[in-house]
Design brief:
Length: 391
């Protein structure tokens, strides 16, 4: 029933607990409790009276590119930069009927105004066929099947992933792995994408520390291009990139299980990629040891980027995962952290060449560093990743 809890919490790795609930309108809400949580096991039900969920959006195909555009009109009603007292991601109070009825460590819930879903294709629906969106036609449309979820990193009103503590970071990573498994199993879902948008310059509408997960009914254009590259180069593409970077001057952080580096052909003024040293197609395939180390290195990376300037750096943290059911042995889980910030008070805007033609022009060249700088950069990041790559 809406607002009621699953009576059987699930124990995950590293002592993290998962507690499934439902919101008043039937949306899924899941609490992930830190291994060292101080919260009680019981959570209050959602007693709000809510309107019906908006209908599932539709998609339209651009016949010039083949891209599918989701038309999600309900997103126009999103809250924009509310005061802390009306934070929709904070725990509910008598004066704030927010989305989360109880205090929490990490909370994941279905987006109230999603770009994809909540509808999913039924058995026998042609949308279950992997090729049902292939081809080009005029005025083609389709249902925006899928799922969009919000991942709250903390009950605090302000912050980002880099502002949470190590235990909490480990909980978020566990939540990403859990949700990747669950969303990949939904009918019609072909790709699962966890990400965090940070900062007003990126278009963020809430200051609350949170990210999102999209479960798409198609392979995104970026993934289609990646698949073409893997098919052209060979299945060892990611392994060979990592080996090349480990032997070169652009590594900024390295551990036993993960390596972060400035990519050879960076598009953005600040751009860092992070790869697992051993193959994992997505978060669900990572080991407990990989997740433990990631909780440390990822915080160091984000805090290092924030230390570049006197104010927090806007960024997109995009966790690219292998698609569901294809290229699982050749496409590796990878973070692409990008920021348009090219100076203390300067941003890179996508104008004619980038936005209209997809032809990128980089602003900052990369030059080799003297030996020994890699070790210093692993201890701390004092400059932009591109500057680290040239020092």
């Amino acid at each position: 029933m809406p607002g009621m809890a699953d009576p059987a919490p699930l124990a995950l790795s590293s002592g993290i607990a998962k507690r499934a609930h439902r919101l008043a309108d039937g949306r899924e809400l899941i609490y992930f409790d830190d291994a060292d949580t101080t919260l009680p096991p019981d959570r209050a039900p959602d007693l709000r009276v809510l309107d019906d969920r908006p209908p599932t959006a539709s998609m339209r195909q651009d016949p010039l590119t083949g891209d599918w555009i989701s038309i999600a009109a309900a997103r126009q009603n999103r809250v924009v930069m509310p005061p802390a007292a009306l934070d929709p991601l904070a725990p509910q109070t008598a004066d704030n009927p927010s989305e989360i009825p109880a205090d929490y460590d990490v909370a994941v819930f279905e987006n109230r105004s999603p770009s994809f879903g909540p509808a999913l294709p039924a058995p026998g629906d042609p949308a279950l066929a992997a090729a049902h969106l292939d081809g080009i036609g005029l005025e083609r449309s389709a249902v925006s099947f899928g799922r969009c979820e919000v991942v709250c990193f903390s009950p605090e009103h302000e912050g980002a992933f880099g502002s949470i503590h190590r235990s909490r970071a480990r909980t978020v990573i566990e939540a990403w792995a859990d949700r990747t498994t669950a969303l990949s199993a939904l009918p019609g879902v072909r790709q699962v994408f966890p990400f965090e948008n940070r900062g007003a310059a990126i278009g963020v509408t809430l200051q609350h520390p949170h990210g999102q997960i999209y479960a798409y009914p198609y392979l995104t254009p970026r993934t289609q291009r990646l698949i073409a590259s893997v098919d052209s180069y060979g299945p060892s593409l990611f392994a060979d990139i990592l080996a090349s970077e480990l032997a070169g001057p652009r590594v900024v952080l390295a551990g036993e299980h993960w390596t972060a580096f400035v990519p050879f052909a960076a598009r953005w003024p600040i751009e860092v990629h992070l790869l697992p040293n051993e193959h994992a197609a997505d978060f669900a395939e990572t080991s407990a040891e990989q997740r433990d180390e990631l909780a440390v290195l990822y915080l160091r990376l984000l805090r290092g980027v924030d230390a570049l300037y006197d104010s927090p750096t806007p960024y997109i943290a995009a966790w690219h995962q292998a698609p569901v059911g294809t290229h699982r042995d050749s496409i590796r889980l990878n973070l692409q952290l990008t920021s348009p910030r090219r100076g203390n008070d300067k941003l890179k805007f996508l104008a004619g060449s980038e936005a209209a033609m997809g032809a990128w022009i980089g602003d900052i060249p990369q030059r080799p560093r003297p030996s020994g700088c890699a070790q210093r950069s692993r201890r701390q990041m004092r400059r932009t990743p591109h500057e680290l790559a040239r020092r």
